């Protein structure tokens, strides 16, 4: 069915042929994009990774090849040899459009059934079909472009880090279950039946051990695993650009990673990232944008109007303020003309973020219109308008509640307004910000105790050390996230390297000495032997590819992704296992009927 | 307990300081190798990844630092600042030996307990202790050197392949159980309780799918997993340099990989690999060296003496020949003086390879001595000696049996003699050979059927296609291994891309259409859509590091290896799992009492 190459060598790639190849005899190999008959000739568009080239067959060029070409169908894999000539009818829309190849010899390397999906740019087939026939989906030029970008990112990351004396070091995949964080994937052991390894959620502990070992600068582009319910844009296995440095403070890590990002974005996309990247504290980010990953491609800051409304006789505002909360607002330029229906929808929207409601003021040409008109005096209105910097034509949206609810709901509303009113002007902008001074702890109301906001090895800020025992909720950490266009691109921290401080940290997290030892034993032990000051960061490679390839679907940047249920349509994994093997592992299936 | 850096920056690495730094003020950071008192001064050897630098403390240099330095113990992590000066007593044995740093300021970044293993070159502590305190074991300069070599290999592999238009593409870790080969590690699924993913033994099927997708050239440095009983130099997880190319034949893959090897060995070790690398067929390798991975650093070929002995009245030889076997021998130069005891030991040695015994002839100054003297005529002896090219002073060792036993036992004896008599003269030699024309099938006597010698996608040689059904045992394949100093460094093959041929192959392997579809379904399906001719290769990265680092223990080249039982002394993995999590996975522990 398929002819052999028989020593035939490809001499160029399809997308590379240009006018300077005219009158050369070349050999191309690839897939038939289309095959048409025209004026007694046969024209095949031949496709490979680099592009498409027109091949022409004719009785007068080579009769045998011409006859064979007539039967060639889309997605056949073929090899063609012939002379490059100028096209009579050039196509200026394709890079190879000025030339064509006059085919003197055709080999059909393999035939193809009619593909169940059409191989072209911008396909919109059902996801399950795309994933089942992923090998065909990946033939689409836009998919190939994504993986060429992914390759370019990885290579430029490695080049930069290698130039900066980082060592690529591999860490284990079969490791111990990590005590905090998401659910681990388990791997049953055969040597120790009934016991399990865990796949790593990140190489965190191992990279810290490598610093204890004196490797000084480590990096790895590494698969990580989380057995979580898959929200959109999550995959059970994902890839991190993971790095760690010794003898550094926060400034050093930030500077190194700014250099990395600038290098990668320049190499891959020709984008000049302006350095230094701006910074914002977690507190500012929450107060101004209601998010620890603010999208700064548009203005619209959240403004505190508690002072302006504190004397209003409006129970919703009053009770929020009295309970220690606040009243804050967003100003939508040109929002004065919004009708009742869209405004009501915005009210519904904020309720999904636990806000009790959304008050609003419209500054129309003919006066003020408001959902809280009967509580507003002119003085209060003027005061709010002034604080907000609002003008005639604008709308003001107000939430009153405890601060966490105010921030979350107004932060979400801010993004929603940007979407609805197209506030992001430059779609190609890459707007970076470091978020710093994260809280060290998060309070878990259900369990009534503090959790580590990042992980228990994150260093508190020196200024806040005294509050570790007395006021843990206020302690800030040496943690930092790099945010790009409202998404977290990466994050890290300076780690604790002082074992006394680590003990205080464990205590604050509610660990006894025993339970800390049980859970983090080998790291605690390692830190008894002269650990260096160290810190690091991990970027989500998948997300970085999404940004640089301009896609919002994580499945587009992973060759063989799983669906929302972590199922692979292609290989049909997971699957049943051999009973004998399960016996060796000391486990048995125990599925309850539903 | 530990001082903070407080903005202090390292300006040089310990191993970098030279005479041209004299009179500069520098800051170094690292670990205390030793601390000694001498002539009213305190001398600390400070160590980091790059080497060791002498730091001197004195009352007159800086009294405060001098006082502090007195209490510093080995493996404390410290930072020192001061001026570089020439040493009064230079040490020409270390790269920094002409200079020292006069310490004006000392920070103790962290203290250290007395380490349970000594941090020095060439340690010989018990393996379990080394692995339990791996983070200290990895501080040893010789271990750090290994991982710097490993990093250098990976980087130069990536550089070469990137220059040759290979794309680094990641393939899934959570995949479907592979039907042939070693035992998979399983990963229970939570979304489909009672079902399992498998960790990949290699990305074989996925890389072939990527070729079907038109990625053209793929590579990946990737973790692979095999749940096998761990022989020496095996680890449950290991790393492959995996690559695949489209539109190629065996010559193209071999040439590309010779270029890769030459690049890596030059970059990493300054070794010039002479290209092209010599080649040998599997048949020649077996007949001459009794191995498909012959060590060619020394001569000593196996010689067939069946013709010479066929008329001897010796039942052992006779019956072997009559049964279709052969009589073959090795000649040990200078072996005539060997005493009876060492010769008897060699006899025992070959018995472990199923040989029934070892006949021998010693060509002594004063005549022939032999274990089979009573069967030897002068004519036969002369004939053997001539065929062997033996001289007075040599010994000839003979095995008669079926060929597989003759090859295996004499191949092993050849290596044993090389070891005992130190036949490998140049220990630094890198002797490469390609082994080609491997058998396509292996006959499984237990199951009474043929198995794929490599995997079922390996292409038969064109010349042997006709024998696929009639004489499968004789069919050779387009498979090739790269052998270095008697070890397999890598191997691969040209794959079948013709679906008719693939069907014939499955049939020859005893698969029905149904069972082939069940096991290899998605690859078979993919090959219906114009698969390109393709082939590839995988190198064992761990083994490559072992060669270039000069170690024979695979644990030395893996940061956190497991022991023979796949147990990690450091993290104590595997471990028990949470009962609730097992319930979610639909499995329960079912360990039988022994």
UniProtKB/TrEMBL annotation, chains A, B:
Please state the Enzyme Commission number of this protein.
Answer: 6.1.1.12
Q: Where does ATP bind?
A: 226-228, 235, 488, 540-543
- In this chain the Aminoacyl-transfer RNA synthetases class-II family profile domain maps to 147-561
Q: Which GO terms describe its cellular component?
A: cytoplasm
Record-linked Gene3D superfamilies: Bira Bifunctional Protein, Domain 2, GAD-like domain, Nucleic acid-binding proteins
Binding annotation for L-aspartate: 180, 226, 454, 495
Instruction: Show the SUPFAM superfamilies listed in the entry.
Output: Class II aaRS and biotin synthetases (SSF55681), GAD domain-like (SSF55261), Nucleic acid-binding proteins (SSF50249)
Q: What enzyme class is recorded for this protein? A: ligase
The reaction(s) annotated as catalysed by this protein in its Swiss-Prot or TrEMBL entry are: tRNA(Asp) + L-aspartate + ATP = L-aspartyl-tRNA(Asp) + AMP + diphosphate
> What InterPro entries does the record tag this protein with?
Aa-tRNA-synt_II, aa-tRNA-synth_II, aa-tRNA-synth_II/BPL/LPL, Asp-tRNA-ligase_1, Asp-tRNA-ligase_1_N, Asp/Asn-tRNA-synth_IIb, AspRS_core, GAD-like_sf
Mind listing the UniProt keywords for this protein, alphabetically?
Answer: Aminoacyl-tRNA synthetase, ATP-binding, Cytoplasm, Ligase, Nucleotide-binding, Protein biosynthesis
The family database entries (CDD domains) matched by this protein are listed as: AspRS_core (cd00777), EcAspRS_like_N (cd04317)
The terms under GO molecular function for this entry are: aspartate-tRNA ligase activity; ATP binding; catalytic activity, acting on a protein; nucleic acid binding; transferase activity
**What is one Gene Ontology biological process annotated in the Swiss-Prot or TrEMBL record?**
aspartyl-tRNA aminoacylation
Subcellular location per UniProt equals: Cytoplasm
> Region Aspartate: start and end of each range?
204-207
- PANTHER family, from UniProt? ASPARTATE--TRNA LIGASE, MITOCHONDRIAL, ASPARTYL/LYSYL-TRNA SYNTHETASE
Its biological purpose:
Catalyzes the attachment of L-aspartate to tRNA(Asp) in a two-step reaction: L-aspartate is first activated by ATP to form Asp-AMP and then transferred to the acceptor end of tRNA(Asp).
- State the HAMAP family in the record: Asp_tRNA_synth_type1 (MF_00044)
How does this chain assemble?
Answer: Homodimer.
- What family does the Swiss-Prot or TrEMBL record give for this protein? Belongs to the class-II aminoacyl-tRNA synthetase family. Type 1 subfamily.
By its UniProt entry, which NCBIfam families does this protein fall under? aspS_bact (TIGR00459), PRK00476.1 (NF001750)
Q: What is this protein called?
A: Aspartate--tRNA ligase
